[in-house]
Specification:
Elements lengths: L1 H98 L4 H97 L23 E2 L28 E10 L2 E11 L24 H4 L4 H4 L11 H14 L2 E2 H8 L3 H13 L3 E5 L13 E5 L1 H5 L5 H39 L7 H14 L4 E6 L2 E6 L5 H4 L4 H14 L4 E4 L8 E6 L11 E2 L3
Antiparallel strand pairs: 1-2, 2-3, 4-6, 5-6, 7-8, 7-11, 8-10, 9-10
Helix pairs in contact: 1-2, 6-7, 9-10, 9-12
């Protein structure tokens, strides 16, 4: 009883230590969250400074424009003054001509001076025009700087979103750690209840009972060995029937192997295996005392106990598939750590190294991981060098992505800064490569629009559109059962319009879109009108899958 209480006290201390470790992890996560908030505030401060600089630049441009306007007004006033002077001179010239014909030479000289003044005014106007052009170029430069600042602001927002995503992942990991600690506490509580029931069980009173003894740790294995077991001469099963006697040299002790690994802030609790030395149970199906210590094999109930054959015939069907959830855990761990060996993965996941290697071999065969020898510093010990495993690009492609959201955000930015025309130009440029590849594949299709539609369906299928062509009485139909840009095209119809224009150019006639996946239809259907030839069979199917 004292030994049981001691074990329970040790387990309680371990549980308290585990809770303290979780609290320390939560404190670290809180510090990380505070740092992330400070980083976000710093980014917002930088954005505010950039906005102030942009406003100052706009005010400077406005000041320059105001100065130019004042100069222009002064130039207009100078021109008006010159014109007034010229008018006065003209009046004087007229009066001089009427009064004295002898001053004609003087008036000629004055006329030459007037022409020179006009040329000077024109030169001033040319200089003002050059200044106006320079002002326009300055405004365009300011607009370009504002566009760059807007792009930097978008990148900053994306960085903030990435930081928030990392914080969300850390929060989820913290919740999982707390749940794991609660599960360990629940297991400890169940073990405590079982220990109390084992000590106070009514069917053991007066029949010898069992002894629970804690021994020293085995060196290098992290296990416990039983020692100083009491000798028991009689024990009984649940029904109360006495079992055969146990000889004096066969103590009913046992060994209990329990592994617990702590490394790099991770706690991995392994399975517990207990093997008791006892006499052969009358109906247990075991062949002798010597085999009770043999834990390297699993007994086949069909060979030892025919009575239980129907219950275990299909317990473990051959050729069972690999546990997909375990592979997901391996992928998640490699994603977090970057690379790890099979031993490190087995310790972290609480599984056997052989089982982890089977999963890694399957992932190697599928091209999801790659292995390389770990670089050893200093002198390497005996044995084969450790091999580390890392995720490949193919494995990372299976992880969640937000390409559709990024493409839609980019098109929204283009529409906001360049208008719908810019989006249309981008869509035309996007499908230009597709048009060139399909045109090369349709080089031998001939001039018939329906034959070209069939060749186009084959080319689009090769591009991943799962297309097919069908000939009907009024012409033909091109059906695309998959659209790689359906989510983005649902918001920007310019993508569908550019694709329709490509189809029209490739088949050599005008076409009409009847349905699109982007609008919620099941298939993108394009009608290709063509004259009905005499003797042609309608509804001739040409499907390419």
């Amino acid at each position: 009883m004292l030994a049981v209480l001691a074990v329970l006290a040790v387990l309680a201390v371990l549980a308290v230590l585990a809770v303290l470790a979780v609290l320390a992890v939560l404190a670290v996560l809180a510090v990380l969250a505070v740092l992330a908030v400070l980083a976000v505030l710093a980014v917002l401060a930088v954005l505010a400074v950039l906005a102030v600089l942009a406003v100052l630049a706009v005010l400077a441009v406005l000041a320059v424009l105001a100065v130019l306007a004042v100069l222009a007004v002064l130039a207009v006033l100078a021109v008006l003054a010159v014109l007034a002077v010229l008018a006065v001179l003209a009046v004087l010239a007229v009066l001089a001509v009427l009064a004295v014909l002898a001053v004609l030479a003087v008036l000629a000289v004055l006329a030459v001076l007037a022409v020179l003044a006009v040329l000077a005014v024109l030169a001033v106007l040319a200089v003002l025009a050059v200044l106006a052009v320079l002002a326009v170029l300055a405004v365009l430069a300011v607009l370009a700087v504002l566009a760059v600042l807007a792009v930097l602001a978008v990148l900053a927002v994306l960085a903030v979103l990435a930081v928030l995503a990392v914080l969300a992942v850390l929060a989820v990991l913290a919740v999982l750690a707390v749940l794991a600690v609660l599960a360990v506490l629940a297991v400890l509580a169940v073990l405590a209840v079982l220990a109390v029931l084992a000590v106070a069980g009514p069917w053991w009173l007066g029949r010898g009972g069992w002894a629970v003894v804690a021994g020293p740790w085995w060196p290098g294995r992290g296990s416990m060995s039983a020692s100083a077991q009491p000798r028991i001469t009689e024990m009984s099963d649940m029904s109360g029937a006495p079992a055969p006697d146990i000889s004096a040299d066969q103590p009913p002790g046992g060994r209990c192997g329990c592994s617990a690994i702590m490394s790099a802030g991770r706690v991995c609790v392994g399975l517990v295996r207990v093997t008791f030395r006892a006499v052969d149970h009358p109906e247990g199906g075991l062949l002798g005392l010597g085999e009770l210590r043999n834990v390297g094999v699993v007994k086949n109930a069909e060979a030892t106990s025919p009575a239980v054959r129907p219950q275990v015939a299909d317990a473990c069907p051959p050729g069972a598939a690999l546990d997909v959830r375990t592979r997901d855990r391996v992928t998640e761990l490699l994603l977090q750590q970057g690379s790890a060996t099979a031993s490190e993965l087995s310790l972290a996941l609480g599984l056997s190294p052989a089982g982890i290697r089977r999963h890694l071999d399957a992932m190697l065969a599928e091209g999801l991981v790659e292995s390389r020898e770990r670089a050893e510093r200093g002198r390497r010990g005996r044995g084969r060098p450790a091999r580390t495993f890392t995720l490949t690009a193919a494995a990372r492609e299976t992880l969640p992505h937000t390409y559709d959201g990024l493409a839609a955000a980019a098109l929204r930015w283009i529409a906001a800064h360049g208008g719908a025309k810019a989006v249309s130009e981008f869509a035309a440029e996007q499908v230009a490569g597709l048009e060139e590849r399909c045109r090369s594949a349709m080089a031998e299709a001939g001039e018939d629009p329906l034959a070209r539609a069939e060749a186009l369906a084959q080319a689009l299928t090769a591009e991943g559109y799962a297309a097919g062509s069908t000939t009907i009485a009024s012409g033909g139909q091109l059906c695309q059962h998959h659209c790689p840009v359906a989510h983005v095209a649902a918001e920007f119809s310019q993508l569908c319009e550019a694709e329709t224009q490509v189809i029209s150019r490739l088949v050599g006639t005008h076409v009409q879109r009847l349905a699109t996946i982007a609008n919620g239809d099941g298939v993108c259907t394009t009608h290709i009108p063509a004259p009905v030839l005499p003797g042609a069979r309608p509804d001739r199917q040409r499907n390419v899958r």
